[in-house]
Amino acid sequence: MPGPIRTVDLGGFRFPLGTETLGLSWQPRERRPGTLNLKSCELQHPWSDRLVCDELAALPPAETIAYPFQDRALDAVGTYHGLDAGHVLLTAGSDNGIGLVVDALVRPAGRLLLQEPAFEAWRHYAALRRVQVTGVPGVTGAPPTADPGPLLDALRNTPGPAVAAVTNPGSPSGLLYAPSTMRRFAETAREQGHLLVIDEAYGDFVDTSHAPLVAEFPNVVVVHSYSKAFALAGLRVAALLVHPDLRAHLGRFRPENAVGAPGVALLERLAPQRARWREIWRDVRAVRQDFTDRVLSTHHEWRALQPGANFVTFWSPGAATADAARDHLAAHRVRIRSLSDVPGLRGCFRVSLADRPEMERVARLLDAVADRTHPPISVTAAPGKTARHGERPY
Predict the structure, then answer these.
(1) Is residue 193 packed enough to be buried (19+ CB in 10 Å), middle (13-18) or exposed (0-12)?
(2) Angle 179-192/149-157 helices, nearest 10 degrees?
(3) Alpha helix locations (H) across 219-336?
């Protein structure tokens, strides 16, 4: 049955449209020249830049202008996750993957149990499909800690079938559930007839993979983002790791048509280079630790939610601090995200990571946030770029 409709007047031409988009926002990305973007959590690291650029330069023209064949990329990704290629379905970024999950799996079930806070795309696509969403708190306390209890209760108390979605590590919190907790989610969901979808967009940064659960539990689906882990945000590449029978169902929605040839070709080349990526992710964690220590050395009352990812989420007991930090950095052309309006994350703000000189500059800018009675100080980037472990030949 079609849902409610509204009629729009297009300069005298009237046409019926659905009402599901009312109340939903759509804001195209805006260019901000001269601004350091520490809001969108792209991987920004000199070693990953060099690795991706080298592989991109080596691509034959035929692999960028012809329709892509995914077989070799699927084999490479399957090996990367320790799964057969029959468990892997490529999508145009995790946003597209979440939309596919909602369309193909949540909509028929009719209910989404969403552990929150979560990526905004979950509620957005659920609204477009007119799916009922039951929000389940995933954090508690001040400073916030991860709390699995409400989702376990929701899984037990919700008549099946339903789809439950959990993000691990959490975004935007950066909090992480232990493997034993994720297993409990999978087991409880299976017992109650529910699908469990795990969004692990930032998993590689904290050495966390839920692919073993996919191999063991037919009711587990994992959303994995290479846009994040492999610095391919501009090419929009992700995968759903899923039981082969579910993959066949999802594949009929033809998500492969939205994944371009350059992304497929680069994924085929980058997935086997796990040792190099692990070195990059280790250095990202080192940058994160140095930045965190530097900020907390000035702000003793703040806390950094652990373990984070390629970002740090700070908590302050002053609820207005998150907005103050965002506004102060914005005045110096640095974008971060205040989480003051996110349930469970009152007083928090998130800063993604760039190179060491930039993060030192950001830390010095944050020094001025503690005392709002003084005007913001002017801080310029430190000259030169150095890395703790030196440059790499890739």
Answers:
(1) middle
(2) 10
(3) 226-229, 244-251, 261-270, 274-298, 321-331
The strand pair at 36-37 and 348-352 is best described as: unpaired
Contact 338, 349 (CB under 8 A): yes
Q: What is the pLDDT along the chain (394 residues), one digit of tens a residue?
A: 567 889 999 999 998 988 888 888 877 878 888 889 999 899 999 999 999 999 999 999 988 888 999 999 999 999 999 999 999 999 999 999 999 999 999 999 999 999 999 999 999 999 999 999 999 999 999 999 999 999 999 999 999 899 999 999 999 999 999 999 999 999 999 999 999 999 999 999 999 999 999 999 999 999 999 999 999 989 999 999 999 999 999 999 999 999 999 999 999 999 999 999 999 999 999 999 999 999 999 999 999 999 999 999 999 998 899 999 999 999 999 999 999 999 999 999 999 999 999 999 999 999 999 634 333 444 444 444 333 333 333 3
98, 125 Cβ separation under 8 angstroms: yes
Q: What are phi and psi of 236, to 5 degrees?
A: 55, 80
* Cβ-contact 226, 238 below 8 angstroms: yes
Rounded Cα–Cα distance for residues 129 and 195 (Å): 18
Q: Is the dihedral of CA 141, 142, 147, 150 positive or negative?
A: positive
CA gap 84, 241 in Å, rounded: 10
Q: Which residue's structure tokens are 């996110």?
A: 342
Neighbouring C-beta atoms of residue 333, cutoff 10 Å? 12
User: Alpha-carbon dihedral of residues 48, 52, 54, 58, nearest 10 degrees?
Assistant: 160
Residue 61 neighbours by CB under 8 Å, 6+ apart: none
Q: What share of the chain is helix, strand, coil (3-state, %, to 5)?
A: 40, 20, 40
Other C-beta atoms closer than 10 Å to the C-beta of 74 total: 23
Query: Burial code of 281-317, b = ≥16 C-beta within 10 A, e = fewer?
Result: bebbbebbebbbebbbeebeebbbbebbbbbbbbbbe
Q: Which residue in 236, 318, 233, 276 sits closest to 80, CA to CA?
A: 276
**Stated pTM of the model:** 0.90
